[in-house]
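FIELD: query
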Amino acid sequence: MTQEMQTDVMDPARAAALQAALGFQERIEAGDPLPPFFHQLYFWSPQLPEDLGRDGHPKVGGGLIPDMGLPRRMWAGGRLQFHKPLVAGSPAQRASVQESATSKTGRTGPLGFVTLRHEVSQDDHLCLTEWQDLVYRQDPSKTDIKPTPPVARTDETDQREVAFDSTLLFRYSALTFNGHRIHYDLDYARDVEGYDGLVVHGPLLAQLLMLFAEDLMGPLAEFSFRASSPLMHFETATLCRNGQAMWVRGPDGRQCMTAEALLRSE
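FIELD: result
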């Protein structure tokens, strides 16, 4: 099994920049524990322009992700186990492997599914295990009928309204070194991939849910999430919780993401 190894310093300035982008007043400093999912800000893998695909992501087929002949990429979901908090200002190592790569045909045509597993360690201690689920699809056709999105639950006991704009999406793309053009190139998102606007990053929605969960429940042991409908940059969404269940509801009541948050036993 091919493994990719990366080392990065958990720069507190980068974490503080995400806090600022999200509108938080506090600022992380060296020695502070990083909030859950902030490791997305690190372990960049810069590629030369000629090594990028049309969508701004690195070309597939040369690393852990095979070329399935499907041009559209989506982060469909993931699962995280938090073993020990990562500490800002110290080096960390990430070991990545491909767990699976499969193809099938769905209602909208051929689909490719790839699952990556990442293990992040610091000072020889495993801090985080993450499974990342990616989906690849063919380009949309003008004759395609868009699937009806699922309707979100309305029985939340806690909720938080969140708004987005193109500036936040750009800043999050920059901080995570995510070149996917659906998040900042409106013409590409609309005319090539068929979206109504710029697409809010799935990981950004998951990040907001995790921070919301930790505010309400305390330190997390596990968190899993699944995207179900894209959210556009001009839309306001509602973060919802009922027990361990969490979800993101769009302004029209559609379900954009579901999640489950589990607390540490200690």
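FIELD: remark
The CA atoms of residues 247 and 258 lie 4 Å apart.
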